Amino acid sequence: MATKTLTITEDAYERLATAKEENESFSEVINRITGKVSLLSIAGILTEKEADKLEASITKSRQRSRLRMKRIAKELAE
């Protein structure tokens, strides 16, 4: 694995060290606190039926949102 050298202030280092858990590398701390998560880590957690239901729900929610935005724009234009 390739590595990079970073220069940070002592204050930033202390904050990072405080966030560091036992047996955790600084790279792991940075990934954890910045929310870096691999999409592969969630692959396969839904069944196909659950994924289809979720997709339909998202589509319906987006449609309602678009209609609401159009209604609000129309009211503001009046």
How is this structure best summarized?
With 78 residues, the protein is mainly α. 62% of the residues lie in helices and 0% in strands. The model has no long low-confidence stretch (mean pLDDT 92).
Written description of the protein model:
The chain starts with 9 loop residues before the first helix and ends with a helix. The protein folds into 2 domains: 30 residues; 34 residues. The mean pLDDT is 92. The chain has 3 helices and no strands. The protein is mostly helical.
Quickly list its features.
single chain; mainly alpha; 78 residues; elongated; 2 domains
Shape: elongated
Estimate the strand proportion.
under 5%
Number of H- or I-type helical stretches: 3
Secondary structural class: mainly alpha
Largest sheet entry: none
Question: Helicity, in percent?
Answer: 55-70%
Low-confidence stretches: none
The CA-CA distance between the termini, in Å, is 60 Å
Radius of gyration, in Å, reads 22 Å
Overall strand count: 0
Order of helices and strands: HHH
Work out the count of structural domains: 2
Arithmetic mean of pLDDT = 92
* Multimeric status of the protein: single chain
Compile the SSE list and pairings.
Elements: H1 10-19, H2 26-33, H3 48-77
